[in-house]
Design brief:
By secondary structure, the protein is of the alpha+beta class. It folds into two domains: 20-136, Chitinase A, domain 3 (Roll), CATH 3.10.50.40; 147-198. 40% of the residues lie in helices and 20% in strands. The protein is built from five helices and four strands. The chain has helices at residues 2-17, 64-70, 139-145, 147-179, 183-198, and strands at residues 33-42, 45-56, 78-83, 100-110. Mean pLDDT is 74; it is low at 117-137.
């Protein structure tokens, strides 16, 4: 029982100490990390597709109009976000004089994974390249490196050995019980021994 409590305590620490993917009721909030699919268009033409695009939702990580449009969205929600010229890229950027249209679908939301004090790089400093999508690695690599996966694996292994050890103890105690005789059986055996010795 003590082992079960320890394992439960470890799981609770890992669970509450790790950012969780969620579809919480308030939707996307400042500081969350999102994975989304988007199609960017301007001048009545599709200019860029971004399947599986990941970003931090802060006003310093993405352009202002896109940031404002993402706030409040939930997992699975689709939305058309129109970014006017004043809320898009700075005038020096090649898209600074364009109205941008984003068709967005939210895939996942990680709640405030960097903490409230995180300041992402300014979008003015991040180069914007059409058709370039950053490969963040395999989803399996991310899964196996996850502290939640490691904690669950550890718990399953410890639980297996705990069940195995308690199972062998119960077999031993069952064997002891089977060798123990009831009072009635002891009396009967004693009577038989006395009867044999009298003859």
């Amino acid at each position: 029982m003590k082992l079960v409590r320890i394992l439960l305590f470890i799981l609770l620490i890992v669970y509450f100490g790790t950012p969780q993917t969620s579809a919480y009721l308030d939707g996307i909030e400042d500081g969350d990390k999102v994975n989304l699919d988007y199609v960017l268009s301007y001048d009545d033409e599709v200019q860029q597709n971004g399947p599986g695009f990941e970003t931090y939702v802060t006003d310093s990580a993405i352009i202002q109009g896109f940031y404002e449009g993402l706030l409040g969205m939930r997992i699975g929600q689709q939305k058309n976000i129109v970014v006017p010229i004043g809320k898009g890229y700075p005038p020096s950027h090649n898209l600074g004089d364009k109205i941008l249209y984003f068709d967005v679908t939210i895939n996942t939301i990680l709640e405030n994974v960097r903490g409230d004090n995180y300041i992402a790089p300014s979008p003015e400093l991040v180069p914007f390249e059409f058709g370039v999508i950053e490969d963040t690695g395999s989803a399996f690599e991310d899964l196996f490196a996850s502290p939640v996966f490691l904690a669950i694996s550890f718990t399953v292994i410890i639980g297996f050995f705990y069940i195995k050890s308690t199972g062998s103890k119960s077999k031993v105690s069952n064997a002891k019980k089977s060798t123990k005789m009831t009072a009635k059986e002891r009396v009967q055996k004693r009577i038989e021994e006395v009867d044999k010795s009298d003859f």
